[in-house]
Amino acid sequence: MLKRFEEIKELVKAERPKTVAVACAHDAHTLEAVLKAHEEGILNFILIGRREDILRILKEEAGIAAAEAALSEGRIIDAAADEDCARIAVELIKEGRADFIQKGLMQTSTILRAVVNKDTGIGLGRPMSHTAIIDIPAYGRLLGVADGGMIPAPDLEQKKAIVRNAVEIFEKLGYENVNVAAVCAAETVSPKIQETVDAAALKEAGLAGELGSCYVEGPISFDLAVSAESAAIKGFESPVCGATDCFLVPTMAAGNMMVKMALAFANARMLGVVTGARCPIALNSRSASFEEKYYSLLVCAKIS
Fold this sequence. Notes:
Elements: H1 6-13, E1 18-23, H2 28-39, E2 43-49, H3 51-62, H4 64-72, E3 76-78, H5 82-94, E4 100-103, H6 108-116, E5 129-135, E6 143-146, H7 156-172, E7 178-184, H8 194-207, E8 214-221, H9 222-226, H10 228-234, E9 246-248, H11 252-265, E10 269-275, E11 281-282, H12 290-303
Parallel strand pairs: 1-2, 1-4, 2-3, 4-11, 6-9, 7-8, 7-9
Antiparallel strand pairs: 5-6, 5-10, 10-11
Helix pairs in contact: 1-12, 2-3, 2-12, 3-4, 5-6
């Protein structure tokens, strides 16, 4: 069980450095995160984007020597259009020159179109999904939220894929068993509320070993998932209560709001990763902080 983001760094430092292909790398926060991980011996990088802008930012962030080194070592690929940056990043993965992708200053849809392209992409023929991992000091353990970024209203089969993708991340972070809460507005099944029906089906699928090394509880309300005391008061018994590692949310909107409320009101930090393709993708908002992009890179380096 991981409690804080800093523990992820220790996991990654123990392994060989991975190489990230940064699509649309002409972005200060993205380059700051990449350079920090590189200086710590965690990452190598290939920067794809507007060469002059990349060099300018490198000089401002790390000095002329760093910019000249990146240029002389062939770490920069000049590309102006966002679509070209995305295409080149995917090609680098296919050629084995990079281990994972970082989305820089571009629309999420642009990089995903290149990834899932049936002719030239790196999809695996299964649903891709976004997993946010949040560090909330008051909770005492890292929390996954899936999927708050890709699939708006997943059906049961898509929810199974979302759980598998999230569980795979936690497994590669060293978890032997992942406690997943299929969170709903209540902890009882109601035929009129599809999310509760799906949650019960997900619990059965988990018990049958269909979803990876995890225990899925559902339907379960948020308070029971995070508080063993609340569960005891309501007489709800489950190993997930008060020990949830990952939430499976009923809709993308629910996950998005859950994460943003934690960031706004609970002094939380977050990282975001897309899995389900040939490689993970560090995928953050274009306005995301340096820290969010940095820890997203670290997780991708660990699981790629």
